[in-house]
Write a structure and sequence with these properties.
This protein is an alpha+beta fold. The protein contains 5 helices and 6 strands, in the order βαββαβααββα. The chain has a single domain, classed as Gyrase A, domain 2 (2-Layer Sandwich). Helices cover about 25% and strands about 20% of the residues. The chain is globular. The model has no long low-confidence stretch (mean pLDDT about 85).
């Protein structure tokens, strides 16, 4: 794994209360009042290898479908790190394992175009 396992930068973690999701679609939950700072730091530190968007941007862009109910939206983090490079964002609280094989959380072509096998009986 080595360089493919990325811990969010300290500048990001300063504004982050905790993380959720998985390494290929990592949610960052901001400390109270720090959502804007978290988004700025995440874009500056991780925008070169991940799509970095606020929850509101993802909902507005339809990433989760045309309608997201408020109770569902409230469960999302404040900022999403969605890698386009072959990396996984590490959360020390995650129980792992962390291999990239079989991880399909991001929106890269390799993850979205998973082959389907069918057998006729």
């Amino acid at each position: 794994m080595g360089e493919r396992l990325v811990t969010p930068h300290d500048d990001v973690l300063q504004s982050c209360r905790h993380q959720s999701g998985e390494g290929r679609f990592r949610w960052l939950h901001a400390r109270p009042g720090a959502a804007a700072d978290l988004l700025i730091a995440a874009r500056e530190r991780h925008g070169h290898h991940a799509w970095v968007h606020s929850r509101g941007e993802l909902i507005e862009q339809g990433w989760f479908g045309p309608v997201v109910s408020p109770p569902i939206a409230a469960r999302y983090g404040d900022v999403a790190l969605v890698p386009f490079d072959p990396i996984s964002f590490h959360d020390p609280a995650d129980s792992g394992p962390f291999p990239l094989v079989c991880r399909h959380g991001s929106l890269t072509a390799a993850e979205m175009r998973v082959p389907l096998l069918a057998a006729a009986r």
